[in-house]
Amino acid sequence: DGFERRIAASVLVIGTGGAGLRAAIELAERGVGVLAVGKRPKADAHTTLAAGGINAALATMDPQDTWQQHAADTLQESYLLADPRTVRIVTEGAARGIADLERYGTPFAREADGRISQRFFGAHTYRRTAFSGDYTGLEIQRALVRRATELDVPILDTVHITRLLVRHNVVFGAYGFDLGDGSRYVIHADAVILATGGHTRIWRRTSSRRDENTGDTFRLAVLAGARIRDPELVQFHPSGLLEPEDAAGTLVSEAARGEGGKLLNALGERFMARYDPERMELSTRDRVALAAYTEIKEGRGTPRGGVRLDVSHLPRETIMTRLPRVHQTLLELQMLDITQDPIEIAPTAHYSMGGVRVRPEDHSTDVDGLYAIGEAASGLHGANRLGGNSLIELLVYGRIVGEAAAAYSASLQAQRRCPLALAEARREVDRMLACDGPENVRVLQRGVRDIMTEHCGVVRDEAGLRAGLAELDAVEARIGAIGVHPDNAGYQDLAHAFDLKSTVLAARATLEAALERRETRGCHNRSDYPGLEESMQVNLVWSGPGKVEREEIPPIPAPIAALMRHVSSDGKLVE
Ligand code: FAD
Predict the structure, then answer these.
(1) pLDDT of residue 569
(2) How far is it, in rounded angstroms, from Cα 221 to Cα 361?
(3) For residue 20, how far is its CA from the centre of ligand 1 (angstroms)?
(4) Is 122 in the pocket of ligand 1 (CB under 6 A)?
(5) φ, ψ at 573 (rounded to 5°)
(6) Which of 69, 176, 204, 210 has the smallest number of CB atoms closer than 10 Å to its CB?
(7) Catalytic residues, which ones?
(8) Ligand 1 pocket, 193 CB below 6 A?
(9) Distances (CA, A) of 442 to 255, 355, 428, 439, 483
(10) Is the CB of residue 180 less than 8 Å from the CB of residue 164?
């Protein structure tokens, strides 16, 4: 307790999910001294939960496919809020990302002649989602961990980072503590890559794991001087499990719809016919989630408040080879055999499309030497993420940011350090450990999740969002009286206290931006502003309480716009 280790690395990567590991591999392959830290076991990062697949226009199944069409589909489904430069970099670089994974030994599913197999995911023009059964994220994470191990990348996955260390807007490291023994870490680095994931755990029902995605990215970035873009744009996945309570939100992969699953309400109607008759279950996530939400809200849901997803009509062989994980999960959690019975599901917080505001070319931030990647960053998905686009983003930008951080580190004349910033980080943890009040961190955490679920879920309105902010103020006031008591089992209690601080900050950013976005667009449904508002075709940039600015988005290049089905010649969205 209180013992402080000092470590130095040229580049510090915070986060050992797919994004962080890919960046660390790039740095190690370039011979740059890198250290990767995470707050849960690397073999079990959030990335391992990804199931359905990873996108690249490889054209193995549909020869007409091109990266330009992938870009057009991505921009279309972003409701024009994605940055066309980011979209180009990811879609054009996607094939290389897949080649990297093959090099690291990811076992992709293949056709009989050896081609990588690709399947349909909702709202893609062609089949371009590569996969490994429905364990794609797990296989990718395994391959990345293996490659990082080969390269001797040091990985500390029991370190909770509480602060970035910054002097005069230049990052010089990070501060944190060990989750097991509470010892402190002072990590000095020329450059820091934030790969700390999204903020979906701040809702009650979420596809995320416990104690991850609590909004750490937002707090670390904002306290360092970076800004958050589009925090209100959160994807609710249509199919999260309702039960058991402690696994609420566990995802049923979109692949279940992709392979031919049907969505039914309590009356047995295939309700997507009412919302998107052309695409039915293959419609986009935002539309399917809103449809399911509406069916439940209007009384056509199951008694437990869900709808049904049925794959029992599919051949058993298809289920066992294409959806093995869904099959296994339902057996484990509910003793339900999906070859026989439908699955009860409801919308669940799934993906943070917003995140740290970064420059498209290298994902640098407003702070010199600080980069953000993966779900922690923003720019690719706008108001709706296409399934399979997140994993490819990790691969493409992991490489690019690794390269950029290496160059930045090499260009530095001398490392800048600042005893004051370090002392402040140290004091913050000391103060937290000294908290001995009556308030329970878990209860307050639950309180924030209730607020977000109640007031900032699939459908939002001004009155609710304002009520949410007022309730959040009340929770925040109680944080002053929490008790923090590490025990023999470790420093989880201290970690939860920091998680709570992050959660409150992330919730505030999300509520404030949701209030400011007075329109309905993609995942963001405002019942008081049901239409798309042209003047809101901007990003919202949040830099602290009460500070939300609008930022213009560059135009879509004409050749890409020409491939978009629902965009007019002057760049407006049309139905
Ligand atoms: P994460 O994997 O979330 O990693 C974050 C890392 O940061 C972790 O190591 C964590 O410990 C660390 N960290 C966080 N805070 C701190 C801190 N304070 N101190 C130290 N370390 C910290 N995408 C697709 O493209 N295709 C799919 O089929 C798909 N399916 C999905 C299915 C599920 C159930 C879920 C939940 C997501 C799915 N996604 C899918 C999305 C995709 O998995 C994620 O967006 C992606 O894995 C995020 O990776 P990441 O590396 O950015 O962050």
Answers:
(1) 66
(2) 19
(3) 10
(4) no
(5) -75, 135
(6) 210
(7) 237, 257
(8) no
(9) 34, 25, 20, 9, 11
(10) no
